[in-house]
Write a structure and sequence with these properties.
Strand content: under 5%
Number of strands: 0
Structural class: mainly alpha
Oligomer: single chain
Shape: elongated
Distance between the termini: 12 Å
């Protein structure tokens, strides 16, 4: 019973984190290139409204992914699947590191860009803000890749 529970939790963790993984990849592959072609006001409006909706809709996937990863670690450990628990724990470390990048760097920029978009203004440092937000994209993608790899390994090891 515990093995099945751990497998279900790992699958849910994969699904939740796959949404974040795909979003980060989309930003890294497409949005970053598009924003380089746009003027500061357009980037601010687009990014600001994107963050407005993203910051309202994505937390369920981010938090859900972290919570189900924690539960996967515990369920795998209690079911006696040590290797799976270790793989899930490594995934959890990657997710918590991703979250630290988000909270310390991305979220404050999201807040500034959202406020600017809502007020119809363009910050004097609009390009610098966007450049700083984009500077952690490769790390975010790598961390999500590690997290999904660890969760998939945990699932395979159970």
């Amino acid at each position: 019973m515990l093995t099945a529970t751990a497998q279900i939790l790992a699958a849910l963790a994969v699904l939740a984190n796959a949404v974040v993984y795909g979003t980060d990849w989309s930003c890294a592959l497409i949005t970053r290139a598009v924003y380089r072609k746009l003027d500061d006001a357009t980037v601010t409006a687009s990014a600001g409204w994107g963050h407005y909706y993203g910051d309202k809709r994505m937390p369920v996937f981010g938090a859900g992914g972290v919570i189900t990863a924690v539960l996967t670690v515990l369920a795998a450990a209690f079911a006696g699947h040590t290797a799976a628990a270790i793989a899930a724990a490594l995934a959890l470390i990657a997710l918590l590191t991703w979250l630290a990048f988000y909270v310390r760097i991305a979220k404050p920029i999201n807040t500034i860009q959202t406020a600017a978009a809502q007020s119809g203004t363009t910050p004097a440092n609009a390009r610098a803000l966007q450049d700083k937000w984009e500077s952690i994209l490769n790390y975010r993608v790598a961390l999500q890749t590690l997290a999904l790899t660890g969760l998939l390994a945990a699932l395979a090891l159970m």
